[in-house]
Write a structure and sequence with these properties.
It comes from Lentibacillus amyloliquefaciens. The protein contains 9 helices and 8 strands. The protein is of the alpha/beta class. The strands form 2 sheets. A 5-stranded parallel beta sheet has the order 5-6-7-4-8. It has a 3-stranded antiparallel beta sheet with strand order 1-2-3, with no helix packed on it. Helix 8 packs across helix 9.
Length: 259
């Protein structure tokens, strides 16, 4: 090792100038170096000591790649666990047609909810069949996932059916489903009150609502407040309405406007 060190030659250096880099705002010393040996012996090269532009560029690239991977993972989880009708898979705020003042106001409120998202604030979209409640609620999830929030969209009747199926089939277990429901930043429970009313379904709904206590949930229903209270029972209704803003959507059937 000592023999190798003896044959190493330090490059000749000459300070050319010092300056503050426009890119990284660091004090930089610009030196001219003369390569002392090897195939490039005698070649002059310029080196900027103190500049961090390349490090910043690499760090930005690493953050961008991490963000892309995280977004893909969130989307994969959303697509795997969510229970969505095919007609809603392309739904966004951009393709929601608010053809009357009531639906325009509903869209504005849903957009405001997504823009100022609060992990503890809930939303209830209620009104006539086909007015676009599910469309707006899934639009909220898509807007939030662009900002790397983890979301889940579940039709409550389909969810309860899926939970029952886990008792007899392999694949996603009930515990796995409930763990995902509990952890996500935003859960959409679509079509509350449309599920078959049994002691088991009422109890399972309470378990889901209890797990979501203190976490943002968006609910949709075609029922009035009195009807919903009667369908889900007073205890579940109280959980649903806790820290919940209501958007009322009434008007012509959103799915039949072409006629």
């Amino acid at each position: 090792m000592e023999g190798i060190k003896q044959h190493l030659t330090t490059p000749e250096q000459k300070l050319l100038k010092t300056f503050v880099c426009d890119g990284c705002h660091q004090h930089v010393s610009q030196n001219e170096l003369i390569i002392p040996s090897g195939p490039r012996e005698g070649e002059r090269v310029i080196a900027n000591y103190g500049c961090r532009c390349e490090n910043i560029k690499l760090a930005k690239a690493a953050r961008k790649k991490y963000s892309q991977l995280k977004h893909r993972k969130l989307m994969a989880s959303f697509n795997y666990y969510s229970l969505i009708n095919d007609s809603l898979k392309e739904a966004t705020f951009d393709n929601f047609d608010a053809l009357d003042s009531n639906l325009k106001l509903a869209k504005e409120k849903a957009l405001a909810y997504s823009h100022s998202f609060d992990r503890k604030q809930n939303l209830l979209l209620t009104g006539d069949y086909g007015t676009g409640k599910s469309h707006l609620s899934i639009s909220i999830t898509k807007a939030l996932m662009k900002r790397d929030y983890e979301c889940l969209f579940l039709s409550l009747p389909k969810l309860l059916t899926k939970i029952k199926r886990t008792y007899n089939t392999k694949g996603v277990t009930e515990d796995e489903l409930l763990n995902v429901i509990q952890r996500v930043d935003l859960l959409v429970l679509d079509d509350i009150g449309a599920e078959q009313q049994t002691e088991w379904s009422t109890s399972k709904l309470f378990e889901i609502l209890d797990d979501r206590s203190g976490k943002a949930t968006v609910y949709t229903t075609n029922l009035s407040s009195d009807e919903l209270k009667e369908r889900v029972n007073e205890r579940n209704f109280s959980r649903i309405m806790d820290n919940t803003n209501v958007i009322v959507m009434n008007g012509s059937d959103y799915r039949r406007r072409a006629f």
